[in-house]
Design goal:
Layout: E1 2-6, E2 9-12, E3 17-24, E4 31-38, E5 45-51, E6 57-59, E7 67-72, E8 77-82, E9 91-99, E10 111-112, E11 116-121
């Protein structure tokens, strides 16, 4: 399994970015995909998760209403649309995959992408 995250960059507070995670190496119909982030000096934290087959989603309270996770079956990508960005959203964002249902703990994810940096300036 390979996961390739992209789309990070520098944006002003209140702006938007769209991250994309390209997944390859197997069929992901029985998988859940997740986005996590890690700010400097902090632990990795859950952002959002989605089951590939049903599209069930789950969000961290800190991003609910601002971020949207979605999938593109044709492209085999899982995207994270981030709106109304805040300086506290600054972090390296990682996509991850696990066989089974959505989950908020990084410990249950088996595969990880390399991360993409999002910087939100005030």
């Amino acid at each position: 399994v390979q996961l390739q995250a992209s789309g990070g960059g520098l944006v002003q507070a209140g702006g938007s970015l769209r991250l994309s995670c390209a997944a390859s190496g197997r069929t992901f119909s029985n998988y859940a995909m997740g986005w996590f982030r890690q700010a400097p000096g902090k632990e990795r934290e859950f952002v959002a998760s989605m089951t590939w087959s049903s599209g069930t989603t789950y969000y961290a309270d800190s991003v609910k209403g601002r971020f949207t996770i979605s999938r593109d079956n044709a492209k085999n990508t899982v995207d994270l649309q981030m709106n109304s960005l805040k300086p506290e959203d600054t972090a390296v964002y990682y996509c991850a995959a696990r066989r089974g249902s959505i989950a908020g703990s990084s410990r249950v994810y088996d595969y990880w992408g390399q991360g993409t940096l999002v910087t939100v300036s005030s």
